[in-house]
Design brief:
The chain is an alpha/beta fold and 258 residues long. It is built from 9 helices and 12 strands. The strands form 3 sheets. The chain has a 6-stranded mixed beta sheet, sandwiched between helices. A 4-stranded antiparallel beta sheet has the order 2-1-4-5, covered by helices on one side.
Length: 258
């Protein structure tokens, strides 16, 4: 049996009367690449945000690498995680957002090196060396001294990917990372993510509207509807012969829009 890296057990997230995640169960194996698709408001991005612990959950437990991150053990039971426990869990996860969120006053190298210095305690020299390697990996070695305003949107997103990788995460989350980019720039970012999946031992969860990329890249595709996984399977199964009527309707609408 392949070891699990991420586990959601009965996870519920509400915003007032609105239930965004509804008693969600999801297991993700180590090094598995999961594409998450579905209509707006179905809970896709919330799934990533609660896994990154940017939002608290209302019910259930999330585990990463065999240990709970939303809760911690105390006196033989699980209680809500403290901030220090959350930080420890969050250190295993990297996330890349729709908006690049780069520091405008820092170069690409400085943006990439900052977190390893402040959060991991690396020396500035070690962090800069790590950052330079990662910028080279995402094809931006010649842009290391450029500021965000001097970079295209695709280049900024690649810096954001390098920055997330600088923390040496075990799990990488991508939340609609190409939604703000035009098609040409979108391709260069997806190319970097494809290389990551091929060359590195990373568990990856990607929320995307790029159906072609999901079909090519993912080991498994999960279709979300109303805070639950309505259907999941290999790309061949889900795109080739979806069983759920809601999945069929969504894919028809997406294909008609292309």
């Amino acid at each position: 049996m392949t070891a699990l890296m991420v586990r959601f057990r009965g996870v519920t997230k509400r915003y007032g009367p609105l239930t965004v995640l509804d008693h969600l169960d999801l297991d993700v194996a180590r090094n598995e690449k999961v594409a998450i698709i579905g209509p707006s408001g179905s809970g896709k991005s919330t799934l990533l945000r609660v896994l990154m612990m940017l939002e608290d959950i209302d019910e259930g437990v999330i585990e990463v690498d065999g240990a709970p991150i939303t809760h911690m053990p105390r006196d033989g039971t699980l209680v809500r995680a403290s901030e220090s426990w959350k930080r420890q869990g969050r250190s295993k996860i990297g996330m890349v957002f729709q908006s690049f969120n780069l520091f405008p006053h820092m170069t690409a190298l400085q943006n990439t090196a900052e977190a390893p210095v402040s959060a991991l305690g690396l020396s500035r020299r070690e962090a800069n060396e790590r950052a330079a390697e990662l910028l080279d990996m995402v094809g931006l070695a010649d842009k290391r001294d450029h500021y965000p305003s001097q970079l295209s949107g695709g280049q900024q997103q690649r810096v954001a990917i390098a920055r997330a990788l600088a923390m040496r995460p075990q799990v990488m989350l991508f939340d609609e990372v190409t939604s703000a980019l035009d098609p040409e720039l979108c391709g260069e970012v997806l190319s970097v993510i494809r290389r990551l999946g091929e060359e590195h031992s990373l568990t990856m969860l990607m929320v995307t509207h790029q159906m072609g990329f999901a079909r090519e890249f993912a080991d498994r595709v999960c279709f979300f509807s109303e805070g639950k996984i309505a259907e999941q399977g290999t790309p061949q199964q889900l795109f080739g012969a979806p069983q759920n009527e809601r999945t069929q309707m969504f894919l028809r609408a997406v294909m008609d829009a292309v």
